[in-house]
Design a protein that fits this description.
By secondary structure, the chain is an alpha+beta fold. It contains five helices and twelve strands. Strands 4, 5, 6, 7, 8, 10, 11 and 12 form an eight-stranded mixed beta sheet that branches. A two-stranded antiparallel ribbon has the order 1-9. Strands 2-3 form a two-stranded antiparallel sheet. Helix 1 packs antiparallel against helix 2 and helix 2 packs across helix 3. The longest helix is centred in the N-terminal third of the chain and has 22 residues. The model has no long low-confidence stretch (mean pLDDT 89).
Length: 219
């Protein structure tokens, strides 16, 4: 759930406003608390705190309280960080990007991780589904805080895993989520869907191409 564009911080990401940091923490504490509540009294207290977190976000974003509360309460169990995977696929010195139908901007193929899959299997599946190419993940480019990007801030905290992949088959084709597939030079990129892929991620991919012994980036 995208909220709005934040301000760039000193590390090149996006600074998170204090109210959103508080709201996220309250939501996660309530989610975990509701999962382990021992009685109705505890349940009522955590639900009220959840309502406060919703009110904080609604005050600053204008999102409907009913919609936001439904989203907050739909996250069961112990609160953990979500995971987004992306495949960095290179051919003839150009990087594979897909054009998202949702915003008509471009990004590395990928998406939310599914329960039960290996990380490498997730990125292989996502690249095939969104671009039509069969790939083999070779190494990890980086592990990023997905919320600190140049794009709109997201309500839920997430990490982004970027894998460098080799093409082993398939052909370019769009999908239900993507409307175009193409390869681009690193110095001539199309408009990016920055909450999915930003210049920092692509700069790191390019650095790994130049230095095959480069260690994975993180944070």
């Amino acid at each position: 759930m995208a909220l709005y564009h934040g301000r760039n911080d000193s590390m090149g990401g996006t600074s998170v406003p204090q109210w959103l940091t508080w709201a996220r923490e309250i939501q996660s504490l309530c989610q975990t608390g509701l999962a382990y509540s021992q009685n109705d009294y505890e349940t009522l207290r955590y639900r009220r705190l959840m309502e406060i977190a919703v009110e904080m976000v609604c005050t600053h974003t204008g999102l409907p309280q009913k919609t936001l509360m439904k989203s907050f309460m739909a996250q069961p169990g112990y609160a953990t960080v979500k995971v987004d995977v992306r495949g960095a696929v290179i051919r003839d010195g150009k990087i594979l990007l897909v054009q998202e139908r949702s915003d008509r901007r471009w990004c590395m193929p990928g998406g939310w991780a599914d329960v039960g899959e290996f990380p490498s299997a997730m990125v292989t599946r996502e690249v095939l589904e969104e671009s039509g190419f069969e790939v083999l993940p070779k190494r990890v480019i980086g592990v990023y805080d997905a919320n600190r990007t140049g794009g709109p801030l997201e309500l839920y905290h997430a990490y982004k895993l970027v894998f460098l992949c080799d093409i082993i088959g398939g052909r370019a084709r769009p999908s239900d989520e993507t409307q175009a597939v193409d390869f681009f030079p690193f110095d001539d990129l199309p408009p990016l869907s920055t909450n999915r892929t930003d210049e920092r991620h692509l700069t790191e991919v390019f650095a790994h191409i130049l230095d095959t012994k480069r260690v994975a980036a993180f944070d």
